[in-house]
Design brief:
The protein is an alpha+beta fold. Helix 2 packs antiparallel against helix 3. The radius of gyration is 31 Å and the shape is elongated. The protein starts with a helix and ends in a 9-residue tail after the last strand. The relative contact order is 0.11. Bound molecules: CU-O-CU linkage and copper (II) ion. The site of copper (II) ion has 6 residues, from loops. The site of CU-O-CU linkage (C2O) has 10 residues, from strand 7 and strand 32.
Length: 691
């Protein structure tokens, strides 16, 4: 079991233990409260015995929960801080009181051996059974288990949570005080045992149940309504001026910059021109299966665009789709903001029949890709993507066999079908021995892909297109890509077959061999490639020791809840989903540090548009090999990453999880430069749906 799998399992057990604990303490609390209203001595003894059993079980689950919290804390303080500060005292304090005060008293009552079934309870026994010292600890524990369960599972708390802690603890104290008063009153009254008729009890229970149902459904309806996104949402208005910076007047000052003005200054004809035509297409997979999809220029992946660094590129997008709007986002290219292709942020989505011209200078060498950013998940899944390669100024080496390897899942009726491009079967290609091979591997999917390269040693020469410094020869390593990420692999073609295989699809993959035939048995269980210790160090313009102008922490959690009126499992950033996640606000030229803490149930490939981020550390360990520059940081469960970037590309930028099923339900925010405004809007009353 990997560290991430262990964390995820622990998270599940933690939630379950918290719930079971609450249930048993609630039963024990109810039982303890009714102890004194038993009519017979035997009845009291039996109830006391039952009470001891309930508490015993609760005790076991408490130990279990302490263990899960301990394991989570071993991943880092932030993984368990809220639980340790808020929940643990609410569980341990009353439980201590149970051990010291309740248990001995229950034991004494439980020891009553009463042969006479009808022997009535005398006043002194009744008084002992109603003692607040016996009853209160159990009820206080049940009261404490409620927020401990709620905050653990339904409403994870992210730092700073001092106010939540204080409120919860005060609330618990007040509740315990009320319970004490109630028990005192009960004890004073018990000479006349309150024995209600069955009818009365049924009435009382159903009234309580109805009230609870009304309350819960009221709350559900309210949260559903509140989650509905406004019909028009102004992206530039999504942030407060940061503390310590000139407040107010945002977007109104004389020095505001409009997104539309953030274009390349070069005039004149471009060096390279391309046309991308979005259209509905029947896509035939290598197995013969046919998918009704969408393509650029009728092909999947779309036409490969290769340009040289420094060239001025112009791409005309035409929308010939029957009904969908479209845009093109250049994933991995740090283009001027107005060319970023995000509907509702940097442009209006292009309607059927419409057109948009993108113009930018190719700056960052490497393997990148383009895809529609309108309804991103559906668009990409249906085929609207392609490779964008920026070659060095001298061009690509023609001797190299240069292959684009996009992992892609086709959505069929029977579920997703794993493929490489349109190859849903083993793709065989002929390559002459001695030929240098470069595989540009991309994950277009939402889910991460793990894959292996068998039959040759190889070098990982680029991550997200950015070159690795002095990559060493590797073999027998399992590689992983998060959604949107890229890895370049290079090797010299041997005289025998080489195979790239997705470890969850051992019958598929890409097989290269001198004559196109031959077999390689994939070995899925190889140690994982560690990008933080590969290659050799090199100077970077900034690093872990730099002074950062601003530092942001993004803690990822889950909670069940509503997004845009739909009940779903939410993927939250600092407890919130779009549009309530605060933006990252920056001023030009600042150095920004971001920490990712993943306490959720799944990995998150966090993609920042328009910038390359430098990895500072992963799980507290600084990068020891080549500098790692990424645009999509795949933060696995239980992991902490620190990254930094230079705010050198002014604009309004998306920053989202490239598991597009997550961003679809709100796992997105923005990087906003101060004073940048945009006239575009997203929402149901606009053409723009960026996720
Ligand atoms: Cu490839 Cu905003 O994404
Ligand atoms: Cu995610």
């Amino acid at each position: 079991m990997s560290a991430s799998e262990l964390f995820e399992a622990t998270l599940n057990y933690d939630g379950m233990f918290g719930f079971v604990l609450l249930v048993f303490l609630a039963i024990a609390g109810y039982n303890a409260g009714r102890l004194a209203s038993r009519n017979t001595r035997r009845g009291i003894a039996r109830a006391a015995r039952r009470g001891l059993v309930y508490l015993g079980i609760a005790g076991l689950f408490l130990l279990g929960r302490l263990a899960t919290i301990g394991i989570m804390a071993s991943y880092g303080w932030e993984f368990a801080a809220d639980r340790i500060v808020i929940s643990v005292p609410l569980l341990l304090l009353p439980f201590g009181a149970i051990l010291v005060l309740t248990v001995p008293r229950l034991l004494r009552l439980a020891r009553i051996r009463e042969p006479d079934r009808t022997a009535r309870v005398d006043d002194s026994l009744r008084d002992r059974a109603a003692a607040p010292r016996l009853v209160l600890p159990v009820q206080a524990a049940a009261l404490g288990a409620l927020p401990a369960c709620y905050l653990g599972y339904l409403q994870p708390v992210t730092p700073p949570f001092a106010d939540t802690a204080v409120l919860t603890h005060l609330g618990w104290l007040a509740g315990t005080g009320l319970l004490l008063l109630r028990q005192r009153r009960r004890r004073a009254r018990i000479e006349v045992p309150a024995r209600r008729g069955t009818g009365q009890r049924v009435l009382r229970v159903s009234a309580t149940a109805i009230a609870a149902c009304l309350l819960v459904s009221g709350w559900v309806v309210r949260s559903a309504e509140q989650s509905v996104l406004p019909a028009q949402l102004d992206m530039a208005g999504q942030h407060e001026p940061p503390a310590g910076h000139a407040a107010g007047q945002h977007g109104l000052g004389a020095d505001t910059v409009d997104v539309d003005s953030l274009t390349d200054p070069s005039k004149g004809p471009p060096d390279r021109r391309f046309t991308l035509v979005a259209q509905n297409s029947r896509i035939e997979l290598s197995s013969g299966r046919v998918v009704e999809g969408k393509t650029f220029n009728g092909q999947v992946p779309g036409p490969r665009i290769t340009v040289r660094r420094g060239e001025l590129v112009e791409v005309t997008l035409r929308n010939r789709l029957r009904e969908s709007n479209v845009t093109v986002h250049w994933h991995g290219l740090d283009v001027p903001n107005a060319m970023d292709g995000v509907p509702g942020v940097t442009q209006d989505a292009v309607p059927p029949g419409g057109e948009f011209v993108y113009r930018f200078r190719a700056t960052n060498i490497g393997t990148h890709w383009y895809h529609s950013h309108q309804q991103s998940w559906e668009s990409i899944a249906s085929g609207l993507y392609g490779a964008f390669v920026i070659a060095p100024p001298r061009g690509l080496d023609p001797a190299v066999q240069d292959l684009f390897v996009p992992f892609h899942s086709w959505q069929l009726d029977g579920g997703p079908l794993r493929a490489i491009g349109t190859a849903d079967r083993l793709d065989r290609r002929r390559v002459e021995p001695g030929t240098p091979v470069r595989l540009r591997v991309l994950d277009t999917d939402s889910l991460p892909r793990k894959f292996v390269l068998d039959g040759t040693s190889f070098r990982v020469t680029a991550l997200d297109g950015m070159p690795v410094h002095e990559p060493t020869e590797l073999s027998g390593r399992r590689l992983e890509l998060g959604g949107g990420g890229r890895i370049d692999l290079e090797f010299m073609m041997p005289d025998h077959p080489v195979r790239l295989t997705d470890v969850l699809d051992l019958s598929g993959g890409l097989l290269l061999s001198p004559d196109g035939s031959g077999e390689v048995t994939p070995r899925p269980d190889q140690p994982d490639f560690d990008l933080t210790s590969y290659g050799t160090p090199k100077d970077t313009p900034f690093g872990p020791e730099s002074n950062f102008d601003r530092t942001f922490t993004q803690t990822f959690d889950n909670k069940p809840g509503f997004y845009n009126g739909q009940f779903t499992f939410l993927w939250t950033v600092n407890g919130e989903v779009f549009p309530d996640i605060p933006s990252i606000v920056a001023a030009e030229d600042e150095l920004i540090k971001v920490r990712f803490v993943n306490r959720s149930h799944f990995s998150h490939p966090m993609h920042l548009h328009g910038h390359k981020v430098l990895v500072l550390s992963r799980n507290g360990k600084p990068v020891s090999g080549s500098p790692v520059w990424l645009d999509t940081v795949n933060v696995d469960v239980g992991e902490t990453w620190e990254i930094a970037f230079h705010a050198n590309n002014i604009g309004l930028w998306m920053d989202h999880c490239h598991n597009l099923l997550h961003s679809k339900v709100g796992m997105m925010l923005h990087l906003v430069y101060e004073n940048v405004t945009s006239r575009y809007q997203i929402g149901s009353a606009t053409p723009n749906h960026p996720s």
